């Protein structure tokens, strides 16, 4: 009968369970593992899927990641939840810049030093760098797109007029009557009235959805009026100078931010354990 009698001491221990306190090295390692695993798991996804799909998946993975953090908190303490939250900006950086960065380094998303006429066979690539391209500015197509933009928090929205200019791209030794497979695009916003094509540019970034569908419909509707014959599914490029260098530069900034997240986690754990030891 005495076994069923609960003493006040046992009651206090049951009502106030002590949170787990693993060794500091184990906690630091598990936090770094969580941050970097979530971050680098989005790299292949951002290379193969569109930006919209990848961002949607990032939003959906927040709830499972939260439950994972709660589960790990029962094993390593509540401080591990901070590592779970730090993994979210790491995943965002992976989607925005690191996916393209490693894709360029491995040559998966970039095509360099090719003829313009061959670009139609590399629709999977995101970045193109041509040998000797020529822009047919006299055969351009202009598109006006109205986009709803929120003016201020809680305020009414207003329409922002964005003008796109499409220009066919050919090799220097091609004829204007050849079939067009690649188009250069620039956007005109605000007070600007025309596109300033960079003479040193020889490539650019491929346009994604849903803008690509809009451009494709306009090209198919107006190319015949300009006496142009275009492929059924051409490539549209934002025409810029040295697109590869821009991706690499953004990737270095992304890696620096990832390093900052790791150092922030390590410093947070060290400060927490230092304060905890002094309070005891």
Give a quick summary of the entry.
By secondary structure, this protein is α+β, with helices and mostly antiparallel strands. The chain has eight helices and eight strands; from the N terminus they run H-H-H-H-H-H-E-E-E-E-E-E-E-H-E-H. It folds into two domains: 17-106 and 246-279, no CATH class; 110-241.
Describe this structure in words.
The chain is α+β, with helices and mostly antiparallel strands. Strands 1, 2, 3, 4, 5, 6, 7 and 8 form an 8-stranded mixed β-sheet that branches. Helix 2 (24-41) packs antiparallel against helix 8 (243-279). The chain starts with 7 loop residues before the first helix and ends with a helix. It has 8 helices and 8 strands. The chain folds into 2 domains: 17-106 and 246-279, no CATH class; 110-241.
Q: What is the percent of helical residues?
A: 40-55%
Tally of helical segments: 8
Distance between the ends: 38 Å
Class per helix and strand makeup? alpha+beta
User: What is the helix/strand order?
Assistant: HHHHHHEEEEEEEHEH
Radius of gyration: 27 Å
Largest sheet: 8 strands, mixed
User: What would the principal axes of the Cα set say about the shape?
Assistant: elongated
On the 0 to 100 scale, the average pLDDT is 79
> In terms of per-residue confidence, which ranges show pLDDT below 50 for 5 or more consecutive residues?
148-153
Number of domain units = 2
Per DSSP E runs of 2 or more residues, the count of β-strands stands at 8
Percent range for β-strand residues: 15-25%
């Amino acid at each position: 009968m005495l076994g069923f009698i609960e003493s006040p001491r046992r009651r206090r221990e049951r009502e106030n369970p002590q949170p787990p306190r693993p060794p500091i090295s184990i906690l630091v390692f598990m936090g770094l593992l969580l941050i970097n695993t979530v971050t680098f798991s989005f790299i292949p996804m951002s290379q193969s899927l569109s930006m919209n799909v990848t961002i949607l998946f990032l939003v959906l993975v927040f709830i499972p990641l939260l439950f994972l953090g709660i589960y790990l908190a029962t094993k390593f303490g509540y401080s591990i939840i901070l590592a779970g939250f730090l993994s979210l900006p790491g995943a965002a950086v992976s989607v925005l810049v690191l996916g393209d960065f490693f894709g360029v380094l491995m040559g998966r998303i970039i095509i360099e030093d090719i003829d313009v006429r061959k670009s139609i066979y590399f629709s999977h690539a995101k970045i193109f760098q041509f040998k000797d391209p020529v822009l047919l500015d006299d055969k351009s197509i202009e598109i006006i797109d109205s986009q709803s933009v929120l003016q201020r928090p809680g305020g009414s929205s207003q329409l922002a007029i964005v003008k796109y200019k499409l220009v066919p791209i050919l090799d220097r030794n091609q004829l204007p009557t050849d079939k067009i497979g690649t188009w250069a695009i620039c956007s005109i916003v605000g007070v600007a009235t025309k596109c300033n094509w960079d003479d040193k540019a020889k490539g650019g970034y491929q346009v994604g959805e849903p803008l690509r569908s809009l451009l494709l419909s306009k090209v198919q509707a107006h190319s015949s009026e300009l006496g142009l014959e275009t492929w059924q599914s051409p490539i549209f490029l934002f025409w810029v100078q040295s697109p590869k260098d821009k991706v690499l530069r953004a990737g270095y900034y992304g890696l620096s931010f990832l390093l900052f997240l790791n150092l922030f986690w390590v410093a947070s754990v060290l400060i927490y354990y230092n304060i905890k030891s002094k309070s005891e």
